Queue: 2 jobs
Job 1
Amino acid sequence: MAKKFMVINGPNLNLLGTREPDVYGKETLKDIEEYTRDQLGTILEEEVEVEWFQSNIEGEIVEKIQQLINGEFCSLVINPAAYSHTSVAILDALKMLNIPIVEVHMSNTHLREEYRQQKLTAKSSTIIMEGLGKRAYLFGILSQLLK
Ligand code: DQA
């Protein structure tokens, strides 16, 4: 059976492509989904299923994470976006998962504003990746597959 990955994207990532293109690039979230799927198809011999979810609403992200408890997903790749810096609710939800959590950020937040330096959600992440641009999701998934 194909391994299943959940990818969760937080607020404002629905506007990738037009949102600060100098920071996040010109591709939309749909473009990045397609890029990730194509690359996985080329790189991997095994088939994987990837479900993508995006919300601007903290509670919806919490609920999506709760649905992963004891579920069929082998791993979660999450870009909590601005909630990374503030959300105890998302941190608490992530703490209930017993699958690897890969937190990704498209930009290298260490090169950015002071208020982006604190990452609450990363306290429950297994792996953190930053600065990979559109490749963040691909590398996040591959981190769980390559031996
Ligand atoms: C981000 C970085 C966050 O600081 C920011 O609020 C985002 C995107 C990234 O992918 O680089 O929305 O998570």
Job 2
Amino acid sequence: MSPKLQPVRGTHDILPEEFKEFHKIIEGARDIARLYGFEEMATPIFEATEVFARSMGETSDVVSKEMFSFETKGGEGVTLRPEFTAGIVRAFISNGMQQHLPLKLFSTGPLFRYERPQKGRQRQFHQVNFEWLGDDSPQVDIDLICMAGQLLYYLSGNTKGCTLLINTLGDKESRAKYREALVKYLTPYAKELSEDSQRRLASNPLRILDSKSEQDRKIIEGAPQINQYLNDAARKRFNIVHEALSHQDSAPMFQSVKITPTLVRGLDYYTDTVFEFVAETGELGAQNTVLAGGRYDGLIEQMGGKPTPAIGFAAGVERLLLLGGEKWPVIGKKIKLMIIPFEEVNSIDVHRLATQLRITLTVLPSKMGIMLRSTVETLWQGKLGKRLEKASQRGATHALILAPEELKQNLYIVRNMQTREEQKVPIDAFKDMQKIRNIFGF
Ligand code: ATP
Ligand code: MG
């Protein structure tokens, strides 16, 4: 009798019962993508090996040991995608998508890494992935990280959320200085470092900070930290991001925000802001990073495109499933809201409002059994008229204009983009679903 056929090590079947949960995660991520104005796209499951090797860096763990690479019958070297970003950047360049910037892109599907299988770590796994291309403002980092927090909150229905770890890798100049200092500090310890870290000392020293080896951790404790090497621009940028995130009405979004100087992420392409969401509880064990991302302003140019700033993140679907929880019911009616703050308005207040609205417009309707499919975006730069025009182009049904005079009286201006009618609405009205329904007329 022939031996029983089994799934290949590190892969598993998703049977119907599990698929229902799996599907909830993907659909939930689509809801959040829509809420923040992201559009879905897909790239091939395999690409020329160079696409990943060039972007993620030859010395990264993924490229040096985790890729499923093979030769086609025609002799082309191809690799099953280990992540989304490289393929999306390749698609952005090869399809001339430059002219449509800024772009907010959502993707989902299977990924492949040759890793040692454990709970929450497989050789074929799935991600929901978000990339925001074409805007280097720190406000974008803040908005995207809030979105990541809301995604986790929405999917797990859990008010405890996760802890947000953030760090900055600085710009090129700061990072080069830091790298030098780090190598200088580590070199005398070279023989005491783990084998992996010894290898990285020459090729990718920052990565040593990320090491999980006990012997390395002791040495790393005394290492210089990146924040001492940031130039003014990089420091200012990071402070803006950190301050706003600390001010978010964060209770449902993330339990706390921790600056984590050793958070470096594994890939070469990251610059400035990097972040991870870590589950404090649940079944995840050592695989407790559920979501991770960062800014990669140099990558598109490095891959042969025009210089284009970008930031993104991905969450592992299998790990989200281990987080557990219930998803909110699925929703149907559309409000597309564009928040337009006057320049004098405090940006922290604007983020706070955006967060509040995004929560209200998802949680309240679901509690009331109403179906709603909303988008809440923010638009920061340019004259009011130009911004209203942009809002129309992006299909906004309403603009929420934040003007200093009205704000003093606790009023927002709500503009119906179709009828051009404007009304002044008390801030408090946005906490009440019935009032929200009246304002937006549904
Ligand atoms: P880790 O430190 O756990 O190896 P990573 O830094 O390699 O994670 P990323 O490349 O940033 O992970 O991928 C983002 C997310 O994808 C991770 O936070 C995790 O949720 C998920 N993920 C990564 N690798 C795997 C895997 N082999 N199996 C299941 N999920 C994974
Ligand atoms: Mg990994």
